[in-house]
Amino acid sequence: MYSSFMDYRTRNKLGFEPVKGMLSEIDTINSKKELVKHLGIARLHGIETFFGLDVEEDAKDSSVYALCAWQGGIGLPDRDYYLAKEFAGIRDKYIKYICGMFDLYGHLDGKSADFATAVFTLEKELAHASKPNSELTDPVKNYNLMKSSELERRYRNIGFGKLCANIGAKHVDSIVIGQPEFFDCVDKLIAQSSLSEIKAYLQWCILNGFSGSLGKDPDDRRFDFYGKSVIGNKKMKPKWKRAVGFVQSAAGEALGEIYAANYLSKRDIEKAKLLVEDIRHSLMDRIKALDWMGDKTKSRAIEKLEAMRAYVGRPKRFREYARLETDSKTLADNLINVCRFELDRDVGRIGKKVDREEWKMDVYEVNAIYDPSNNSITIPAGILKPPFFDANADDAVNYAGIGSIIGHEITHGFDSSGSKFDKEGNMVEWWSKRDRKMFEMRCKEIERVYGSMYVLPGLKLNGKLTETENIADLGGIRIAYDALQRSIRRNGGNRIIDGFTQEQIFFISYAQLWRGKNREGLKRMYALADTHSPQEIRGLIPVVTHPSFRNAFAGLSRIGTIKQPHKEISIW
Fold first, then answer.
1. Are 381 and 91 in contact (CB under 8 A)?
2. Cα–Cα 20 to 30 A to 187, which of 61, 239, 384, 447?
3. At 309, which helix (H) or strand (E)?
4. How far is C-alpha 170 from the chain's CA centre?
5. CB-based contacts of 380: which residues, under 8 Å, 6+ apart?
6. How far, in Å, CA of 497 to CA of 565, rounded?
7. Cβ distance 505 to 397 under 8 Å?
8. Angle (nearest 5°) at CA 126 between 122 and 128
9. pLDDT of residue 560
10. How far apart (Å, rounded) are the C-alpha atoms in residues 371 and 59?
């Protein structure tokens, strides 16, 4: 796979040949009834058209896998890029990018500009019908299980039954529809748009989806638009880095098995697991001490916390890739085979029991996750490295680093989204009405504080969009700090290291986690679509709102005056 990405000579020689078959088939469409077949073919090749289609745990019955459909189908990063005045220049460049790619492909008899206009017009309608990202964070409002008969009646032009059959999911009798009104729009668009407009859109989805896997010219054009115009990057990453990225996305667990064998020690796993349990007990103590939550809800919260699974370091078993066919020369074919391999696996699991031991991230990722449907946290080997973790470092460093990350993920089980899932991972209300109301009042205050922060001059952070992650950041640092205090007491009291107390080192180490640098274009994109606050805000607000921060540095003249911090806003 790596070799096929690096082999530009073969990629340039093949040009658009790897996708000509798919594009030519779209040319042969003579009626809208034939469209469903091609929606299925595109999905078999990993291309989304009009909407996303994936297999996930059923949120209301987390023991089985379900087929889920979600809003999508647009080529710009977010719906606001089609609608907001500030992105007018990006829209113009996007239309030119579409036109240029069609020109590069050829075979359109000089109609590239017409094709580009048709594509953009259709995508803009999809953007209008899409929910803002801040409305996608509520799992209850974005879960709508529909039977096949209902789907066929409501969405006659989409033809979900035939689409499912075309991707091998013939046995599906229901689908979780994320945003029904969006699919109403898709159904109407298919009915009202001309056949030539829809064909142009389908061909664009394929051209754009494969542009990074063809020759140098389409690859460069893609970077010129998405990399330079949208994000603001000056130059493309080295080819070898992008090749590694392709291998990661295509066969991540195979690569992860090698990583774990070389860079993960038994000692790291054992120490990290001890930290998990320490952090878990810290949150348990906090829940018991809450003055706004009733005893019944507290009891259920503790039950959920006790039942929460923790996966640390590496999975018990790695996936097998023996059935995945690859070739060192044909990158696009490798990509198609990977997509088909993944889809066949997913479709084969619909309605079957969920594999509770399967990981949803790769071992080498510098990241961690909470999975509400599994009520589990995953702490992979990749984040068990400095600055997040060092088995030889002082507790103050590790509790601030991996400790706050563990606390962050555990807190996700009790944020405004995760709190709507019970200890088994099923979406069900387990709070009393009074306690839920008290919780939501505290969420509003967090939304207000973060919503007052600026990402760029004139651009405020979306406090609602980032609410769940902000709750987790605030909870993570509180829980980790409490755990450090217990560690200090266990080890005979506070120690001075390089002139700093362990509490001071904790806050300094926490801030150092969030060092980062992004270009303005990427900051704007993240402000619209990312549920996380920018790094500088993640390193600031949880610290200055912590009740022990000011006292920790009191009297330390060389630091300077510590201003009065924001009032306490953490829920947990």
1. no
2. 61
3. strand 309-313
4. 29
5. 256, 313, 314, 359, 361, 362, 363, 364, 365, 367, 368
6. 25
7. yes
8. 115
9. 52
10. 11
What confidence tens digit (pLDDT) does each residue in 39-94 have?
988 999 999 999 999 999 999 999 999 999 999 999 999 999 999 999 999 999 99
- Structure confidence by residue, pLDDT tens digits, 529-558: 999 999 999 999 999 999 999 889 886 655
CATH classification code of 2-236: 1.10.1380.10
| Tokens 């829920």 -> residue | 571
Of 483, 480, 482, 476, the closest CA to residue 542 belongs to 476
Residue type, 467: E
Burial of 54 (0-12, 13-18, 19+ CB in 10 A): middle
> What residue ranges do the domains of the chain occupy?
2-236, 248-317+357-559
- The answer, as to whether pTM is greater than 0.85, is yes
> How far is the CA of 417 from the CAs of 142, 405, 467, 569, 571, in angstroms?
11, 18, 9, 18, 14
SS3 100: helix
End-to-end CA distance of the chain: 46
- Specify the 3-state DSSP secondary structure of 303: helix
Distance CA 386, CA 401 (A): 8
In one letter, which amino acid is 273?
K
User: pLDDT tens across 440-458, in order?
Assistant: 999 999 999 999 999 999 9
DSSP 8-state code for residue 554 = T
Say if 2-236 and 248-317+357-559 have the same CATH topology: no
